[in-house]
Amino acid sequence: MRKPPRLEIKDSDDLFELSSFIDPLLGLKLDHDIYLSQVWIGTSKSESKKFDDFRKSDWLGKGFYASVYKVYHKPSKKNMAFKQVQFHANSLSLHQIQTEFYVLHSSTCPYIIDFYGAFFKDAKVFFCIELMDASIEALISNGIPESVLKLVIISVLRALNYLKDQLQIIHGDVKPGNILISKSGTVKVCKSRSLKKGDFGVSTKLNDESSFKHKLDGSIAYFAPERALVKTTVTTSKSDVFSLGISAIQMASGEHPFKNVDSIFALFNAICLDPIPLNTNVSDDCQMFISKW
C-alpha cells in the first residue's frame, strides 16, 4: 500500500456521503485499488481467513480510538487480538484507518507488534494483531532494574527509528502502556493503555501537523513541549524521543515525574518550563543518559 495522503482538515469537516468511502460490493476504500471488507486482507497473499473463523473471548480494553479483544482463530487454534475501530464517515476517521493500516501492513520491524490482517464489517474495521503478555506499565509499580530498562529503551528506540526512517511516521503516543513484553522477554511497541492491546491510531506522517494541530491525540502526560503548545506547527520525531525520556524516568522509578501536578494547565507549564525531575535512586550513568533527552 502506498503512503496515506496528507490529511487536510477544514475548520468544519462536514460528513461525507457513505458512498464516498464505501463501495457496497468492495467495502471501505483505503486506496484506489485497496478495499477492506469481510474478505481477509493479510500480509501474505497465500493466506486466507474468514471473519466467522474468529471467536471473541476476553475484552482487553478500550481507548478513545478503539476497543480490543482477545480472539481465538479456530482453524489455526491460535490466540490473537482484534482491534475494533468504528468508522465515521469523515476524512479524519478515514485518515486514521489509512495510516494505521499503512504502518501495520508495511512494517517488517521486529520491535513493532505483528500484523496478521484486517476486515471491514458493519461500519467497523477489525485489525488482527499479535497478542502479547503484558504492558510495561503493569510491571513498573516499583521500578524495573536498569539492566531491563536498557533493553526496553533499546527496543523502543529501534522501533521509533524504523518508523521515522522507513515509514516517515511519528508514533505520537509513546508511554509505558504502549510498550509490550512477552514471557520470553521480547519487547515491542504499540499504542495502548490496556494489556496486550495494540494501536497506531495516533501515528502521524512526519511534517503532517494537521492531526496534532486540530486534535490533541495521545496521552498528554507524556507530551513533548512542542505538543503541549497547541498553536505550534512543528512536530517531529523528537517529540517521540521526549516522550520516551519521560517514560524512562517512570520505568526506572515506578512513578511519573509529574505525578503531583493537579491540572492540565499546570502539567503543560511543567512540561514547557520546569526542569524534568530525575530519580536519585538510579545510577549516575542512568541519570546522565535520561537528562540528555
Q: How far apart are the termini?
A: 34 Å
Biggest sheet record: 6 strands, antiparallel
Helix-strand topology string: EEEEEEEHEEEHEEEEHHHHH
| CATH architecture name of the largest domain | Orthogonal Bundle
Number of helices, counting only DSSP H or I runs of 4 residues or more: 7
Shape: globular
Could you estimate the helical fraction of the residues in percent? 25-40%
Any idea of the CATH topology of the largest domain?
A: Transferase(Phosphotransferase), domain 1
Q: So, the CATH homologous superfamily of the largest domain?
A: Transferase(Phosphotransferase) domain 1
Strand content: 15-25%
State the strand order across the main sheet: 4-8-9-7-6-5
Q: Give me the Rg, rounded.
A: 19 Å
Whole-number tally of structural domains: 2
Sheet/helix structural class: alpha+beta
The whole-number mean of residue pLDDT values reads 76
Number of DSSP E strands: 14
Low-confidence regions? 5-16, 192-202, 209-218
CATH domain class of the largest domain: Mainly Alpha
